[in-house]
Every structure is written in C-alpha cells, then in structure tokens.
Amino acid sequence: MAQRAFWKGYLKLSLVTCRVAMTPAVTESNKLRFHNMNRKTGNRVVNQYVDAETGKPVDDEDQVKGYARGEDDYVLFEDEELEDVGLESTRTIDIESFVPQSSIGWIWYDSPHFLAPADKVSEEAFAVIREAMRKTQTGGIARLVLYRREHSVLLVPRDNGMVVWTLRYGDEVRDADPFFAKSGEEAPAARAKTMMKKLVEARLRDWTPKLVQDPVEERLHEIIAMRSKKSKRSKPKETPEPERKNNVIDIMEALRRSLASEKKTAPRK
C-alpha cells in the first residue's frame, strides 16, 4: 500500500510549476515504544507542563514559545507568528540554484523525503525538472517549511521521483580539523596495510538492508515474548575482550588470527 502523503504543495523552477506530494523516506513506526509506569500501581505516568515558579499546571492554550534575551527576560512568540516568518516556503518548493551532487558532503544531509507528482497533469513538468538534474548530475537547492521550521533543502532525482533532503545549517556542523589534527601522525606499516586490505576484501558483501538489522530490537521482542509466557529471561552473551600484550593490542597478531578465521568461515565458491 502506498504511503500517504504528509505534505502537498508545488514544485517551481522559473516559470515551470507542478503540484507535488511528499512523504518521509524513513520511519520509526515499527520500533518498540515504552511507557513510563508507576511500579507500585502499574498505571502509566503522564508528562505535564507546570509553571516553574508556581508549580501549577499550564493549559495548552496558555503555552507560548519564548526566546531568552536575558535572565528572566523573554521575547514571546505565538505559533502563528513563527509560521508566518517562513510563509512563502510553506507550500512551494522554489528551486533557487543548482549544485553538483558530488559537491555536498554526507555530513550536511539531514532527513530524506520522497517527492512525486501529485496528479497526472503534473507528471510531465515534474519529469522535465527531474531529468534535467539527472542529465547534469546536479541537485536543486530550495527552502521549505517542514516541522514548523524553515529548512534549506536539496532535491535529487531518484527512479521516477526525487528525494528531498533537509540540510543542516552551517553552524550545526562542527569543524573536524581540531578533532582529527593528531589522529594520522603515525603511519601504519606496509605489511599491516596489506593484511588489513585482505581482511576487508574477505568481508566484502553486496549491500542489503539485512546488513543493518537492529539486534537490540530483535532481542527486546524476544524478551517481551518470553515474559508474556512467564518465561525466565536468558542472560545475554558476554563479548570477550581482545587479547592484549602490555595493555596494547598486537596489531600484526590480531590481523593474522583474523585472516585465518576468515579463511575458515568463508563460503565455498
């Protein structure tokens, strides 16, 4: 069953406009959710906003956003005021410029969304924009209000649609140089690099979503099933620590053992 669109609006490039629909490309709806419970009564515990000074509960209609400009001094905003700031990009994705797709590092990518034409009439205009980006290997830069905040977004073609990536702002990405400054001063030995290359090649696989299954989620489902049957929970296996010599891992010995282990477990061709 097709995912229901959570956003509908317009895609615009100069004078070319078409109606589009968008939905998040990822979901966490299948993940386990836990409630806070009262151990003594077995009842759920609910969250409640209270006044920091009086301690009294505050109704939803009395809650507003506040920006702290000093101690106990706030600039108050209604939800409608915050929405009006980005009003023009609320329902229109207006592509302002194009960049080579390879020029944006992965660290700037935030959340992906699928974008598709909203009706039959819009398919041709949508396809013209998509194929132009595909042929030039570029992505479109635009601004869009999502989740009550205006974002810079990147549009890239994918199959018969596009992926809209929200992008992180400049002040959200830290400079890596100070962190990595001294991490590459010691060059590894040539033999170690050769052995590590062989180890990587021994574990090379084609990509499949099964490679990133969540073992914690699976284990939690098992525990829930066991407890539902009033079974005892089994203890998780302990992972042995790597052998060390003088508190330092012997890299060459570890590589030799790793390669030997890979040869034993490698599937026969």
UniProtKB/TrEMBL annotation:
The lineage of its organism: Bacteria, Pseudomonadati, Pseudomonadota, Alphaproteobacteria, Hyphomicrobiales. Signal peptide: none annotated. Belongs to the prokaryotic Ku family. The keyword DNA-binding applies. Residues 225-249 are annotated as: Disordered. It comes from Rhizobium glycinendophyticum. This is Non-homologous end joining protein Ku. Residues 236-249 have a biased composition (Basic and acidic residues). HAMAP family: Prokaryotic_Ku. Keywords: DNA damage, DNA recombination, DNA repair, DNA-binding. SMART domains: Ku78 (SM00559). Residues 55-185 form the Ku domain. It comes from the Bacteria. The gene is ku. The keyword Magnesium does not apply. Homodimer. Interacts with LigD. GO terms for molecular function: double-stranded DNA binding. One of its GO terms (biological process) is DNA recombination. With LigD forms a non-homologous end joining (NHEJ) DNA repair enzyme, which repairs dsDNA breaks with reduced fidelity. Binds linear dsDNA with 5'- and 3'- overhangs but not closed circular dsDNA nor ssDNA. Recruits and stimulates the ligase activity of LigD.
